[in-house]
Amino acid sequence: MTNKKQALAIAQVVEKGLAKRKARERRFRLAGLSAIIVSLLMLVVLLSSIVLTGLPAFTQTAVKLDFTYDQDLLPSAESLNDEVIMAMDFHGLVKKTLREKFPEVSSRKDKKQLYSMISSGTPYDLRDALMADHELLGQTVSLWVLADDEVDSFFKGSKTVTDTKLSEKQISWIETLKAEERIRTQFNWTFFENGDSREPELSGIRGAMMGSLFVVLVTLLLSFPIGVAAAIYLEEFATQNRWNDLIEININNLAAVPSIVFGLLGLAIYINLMGMPRSAPLVAGLVLTLMTLPTIIIASRAALKSVPPSLREAALGLGASKTQMIFHHVLPQAMPGMLTGSIIGMAQALGETAPLLMIGMVAFIVDIPSGFLDPATVLPVQIYLWADSPETAFLERTAAAIMVLLVFLIMMNLLAIWLRKKFEKRW
């Protein structure tokens, strides 16, 4: 009886212990699930905020006006050519057209408010249209021109009557244009065709996108072959000694170094010591190459390690040299993993800002870069610049540029996943 009682007591203690362990496991599982749910909710909130803020930037308000290219615009009785067109007063043409549209506007203050409703880039659009077609001289042409950013924000509903900077008269003129169907929203091609500008309605990301393209090309052309060569040497040729151990430790440590340190290194070596130009994609690519090399080397070494030793032994057994074994058999099998690591490294480089600020890519760049030495900026730096602007229109464009950058990053990561799935081999 005593043994039975002891056994029952022990069983009860064990059951209580098991119940407590299972309760702890359930609580731990619930805590993990709660953490995932909270993370997903925060991600949804973040992405929703970016999308809702940035969507209005993909449309733009335009106003339809009737412009008359009078002969009086000619500065002299000369024949029409590009030099003469450059000297013509298109600003005066815009003002004259607006006064004719709203003849009741008479005071200087009201005229100033009226003129400010149209984008400051309109005269240049009129000039370009006349340069493209000289036959427009003497004719009246109806053109859709961009509205000012305040008019754009008010018409799209981004601003209400209480928080807009527009006066009551300007709002009444907008209502008049709306009643005559002379104001509308259209797709904002300017956002993808123009470079940066002080005027929100004229600003775009084309310059930043071209700069990012040049920077990523330089980074890829330099970091991929150097990283793969370093990985092959460390994994296949290097002997186990203190020197190679030191190299491996430094590579692993460099992968954790803050990116701004690479910017300081680039500023000290490439710009101050070597005299290379600031804000150039070539310098940015060199800096980002230093930053992405550890990532590519580590990923490439992992890909080489995943190739089974039997493949190496079979190649050597058939008479291949070590170099032939590596480049003809091992490297082709490891290349998918290397490409995946390289694409992830390029995605990291595409989203970097801090090191590029140190080498002058924070400069205001209007022109579209056409080469690796032209002054340029990149998409993350463009986002940084616009985020510092107080205008609502720049806030919208900041969010829209973030959306474009996220699309590129997602595409690069999807490409890496597709390459891994397509060429991955299980040994």
Q: Which class do the helix and strand fractions yield?
A: mainly alpha
The average pLDDT score comes to: 87
Order of SSEs, N→C?
HEHHHHEHHEHHHHHHHHHH
Which percent range fits the helix content? 55-70%
Low-pLDDT windows of residues: none
The total domain count is: 2
Rg over C-alpha atoms, rounded to the nearest angstrom: 32 Å
For the secondary structure, the number of strands is: 3
CATH topology of the largest domain, which one? MetI-like fold
| Number of helices, where a helix is a run of at least 4 consecutive DSSP H or I residues | 17
- N- to C-terminal separation? 60 Å
CATH architecture identity of the largest domain: Orthogonal Bundle
Class of the largest domain, according to the CATH hierarchy? Mainly Alpha
* Residue share in β-strands: 5-15%
Overall 3D form: extended
Notes on the structure:
- The protein has 427 residues and is mainly alpha-helical.
- It folds into 2 domains: 58-187, no CATH class; 206-423, MetI-like (MetI-like fold, Orthogonal Bundle).
- The protein contains 17 helices and 3 strands.
- The chain has helices at 2-54, 82-87, 90-101, 108-115, 122-132, 149-155, 168-179, 190-193, 206-237, 242-254, 259-273, 281-305, 309-317, 322-350, 354-358, 379-387, 392-423; strands spanning 59-68, 140-146, 183-187.
- Strands 2-1-3 form a 3-stranded antiparallel sheet.
- Helix 9 (206-237) packs antiparallel against helix 14 (322-350) and helix 12 (281-305) packs across helix 14 (322-350).
- The longest helix has 53 residues, at 2-54.
- The two termini are 60 Å apart.
- The mean pLDDT is 87.
